[in-house]
Amino acid sequence: MIRQRESRIDAGGQDSFLDIVTNIVGILIILVMVIGARVQTISLKPKDQSSPDVLKLMQEVVRLEDAVVASESELIDLDKQGEQLTLTVADAGNGRMHLITAVSATRRDVEEKKLKIDEDKAERVEMVARSDRLRDEIEQCKLEAEGISHAPQETKKLLAYPTPVGRTVTGDELHFRLAAGRIAYIPLTELFDRAKARTQRSSGGSLASMESRVETVGPIQDFALDYVIEVQINRSIGQVYVRSREWVVKPAYYDLGETLPDALARQSRFRNILAGVTPATTVTLWCYPDSFEEYLAVREELHRLGVSAACRPLPEGAPIGGSAEGSKSVAQ
């Protein structure tokens, strides 16, 4: 807006100057025409009327004509100067425009750099605050560690269980073997089902002809079952009974099963088996002397899960087994 106003002012000044020069030249031309008319009037008079005034007028006409020629020459020079001045003003306007553009670009760069500096400053302030927080946390941890180091090292672990009221297991029962610090699932139900099916196949059509004998089934999941088949005949009522009088479970090797950390992991075999238990299910733990600590940990986990547990402690080297005259597990 300022540049356009200055351009209009400059253009107005040039036009005023040219108008003045043009008016002067016009006045001179009018004077020349007037004098010329007077000269013609004088020249039409008789020669006897000539006087010295005519000569003066003629000299004045010549002088005026020379002045007109000089004025026209000056007018041409003034036109050239005006054109040169116009070009100079245009160049000055272009230079001013370039200067304004450069100033705007520089101002924009300065603003961007200022914003960048402000962002960096804010980031540094945030980093300093974060560093202070971390330093405070480190000091707090050091103080807590120093307090722990001076605290008494003796700790006692208390296990709280409900009042142990024993009940005889009558529902579903899962069996696990604890030996060599490992826990292994005993597929006792699967082994008995296979033994029952084998007995039915081998009896043929006459149960009365069967004799008591020792049979073996398995292994299933690294456990085999030795059992004694006993046949009893009640002649008074004409019935034949077949039962397993005694049975013994034999592992494929001693250190069978999962370690305690593996068994208590989320995707362990122990937890997968426990996933199908019901409130009526009892877990019986056959425990050898070398795995009593593992038994305590497993019993605590079963208590946390709300699963009834029964313990069958075994002396070293004793097999896992039972008989028709034996006792049932007692759960707590």
Q: Please tally the β strands and state the result.
A: 11
Overall radius of gyration: 63 Å
Terminal CA distance reads 99 Å
Computed structural class:
alpha+beta
Number of helices: 6
How many structural units, i.e. domains?
2
Question: Sheet bearing the most strands, described?
Answer: 5 strands, mixed
Mean pLDDT: 76
Name the features:
332 residues; alpha+beta; 2 domains; 5-stranded mixed β-sheet; 20% strand
What is the structure about, briefly put?
The protein is α+β, with helices and mostly antiparallel strands and 332 residues long. The protein folds into 2 domains: 2-128; 167-204 and 217-225 and 250-331, no CATH class.
Descriptive account of the structure:
With 332 residues, the protein is of the alpha+beta class. It has 2 domains: 2-128; 167-204 and 217-225 and 250-331, no CATH class. It is 55% helix and 20% strand. The chain has 6 helices and 11 strands. It has helices at residues 2-44, 52-150, 188-203, 260-263, 269-274, 292-305, and strands at residues 167-168, 173-179, 182-186, 213-220, 223-234, 239-251, 258-259, 282-287, 308-313, 320-323, 330-331. The strands form 3 sheets. The chain has a 5-stranded mixed sheet with strand order 7-3-2-8-9. A 4-stranded antiparallel sheet has the order 4-5-6-10. A two-stranded antiparallel ribbon has the order 1-11. A hairpin with a 2-residue loop joins strand 2 and strand 3 (182-186). Helix 1 packs antiparallel against helix 2. The longest helix is centred in the N-terminal third of the chain and has 99 residues, at 52-150. It is rod-shaped, with a radius of gyration of 63 Å. 12% of the residues are buried.
